[in-house]
Hints:
By secondary structure, the protein is α/β, with parallel strands linked by helices. It folds into 2 domains: 2-167 and 313-356, Rossmann fold; 179-302, Rossmann fold, CATH 3.40.50. Helices cover 35% and strands 19% of the residues. The chain contains 13 helices and 15 strands. Strands 11-12-10-9-13-14-15 form a 7-stranded mixed β-sheet, sandwiched between helices. Strands 3-2-1-6-7-8 form a 6-stranded parallel β-sheet, sandwiched between helices. The protein has a two-stranded antiparallel sheet with strand order 4-5. The chain is globular.
Amino acid sequence: MKILYGVQGTGNGHISRASAMFEAFKQYPDLEIDWLLSGRDKARGCGAIENFLWREGLTFIASAGKISTLQTLKKNNLWQFYQDVRNLDLSSYDMVISDFEPVISHAARKQNIPLTGIGHQYAFKYPIPKSGANPLVNFIMNSYAPVSNPVGLHWHHFNAPILPPILDIELPELMPAPRDSKVIIYLPFENIQQILEILRPLTNHEFYIYHPDFDSDLDEGHLHCRAISRAGFKQDLLDAQQVISNNGFELISECLQIGKNILSKPLQGQMEQLSNAKALEVLGYAEVMYKLDKAHISAWLEKTKSPVQVTYPNVAARLAEWIAGGCKENTETLADELWQSPPGTASFASDRVQSSAS
């Protein structure tokens, strides 16, 4: 079976999911899979996937912790996007899959080809906790990368056929003990100088700060500046005590799996991150701050708290099996199976979650 799998490259979470699926597909050598990446420069790569097709696609630009509408409009070449959609021939593929990748999605719609969508954004068709929505935002969410068979992912099922997260992190048999003072900072959409200004006086903690503005690693006392490195980040994450991050889905999923205290700050103007923040508050999984605030960060760092840990099953392996079998089982069956394996994963009362999902 020949498959085309599209990956939205704007967020690193999509790349992490693709890497996890890439590894899971190795169990099915009869599958011939072409990967298509869009939404980031080709040179930045596609995680564990070395050979991939590339299209410019669509993306967004953020500045100082919020979406920049003007810069986003300038960045996106809609004529090139139209040409890429028109010229992408899907006729040689037996199956087409999209992780919120718009070129493949619109090409499949244009060619009247069934399309399976696997990703966090496809959970938004259900009554999950949402924030920051309006008619325009809803239109963009629904029309950006439409699919005919959506498979949504989230931290909880919210009484809907939503699957647990796909995780791209391997836990060692013997987990390192958390270092009490070690804090991971991953706020790629925030101003790095503002971050450093906030953290510099907080000398009781060792901050490992990953940010795209760093070209190389640099240690300055308790501030450990790190260039973006997936391998390095994973290693640092394992023995960190606390994590301060934006509200990207994949990183917080990994923190929940490992069991890390999380302080999250949503990207303003982006409905997905605002909704993720609301979901975390509903579930009691993390603390949320809505602006970078030194007093809030300082107080949170000094709190004595036990981290939430949620054991998620191997969703990538199950989805690879499902895809290899022709996607014959419905998503309700998959959701029922995965949330029961292992037992107790969905640990919050249904009425509490349902009443807050609006």
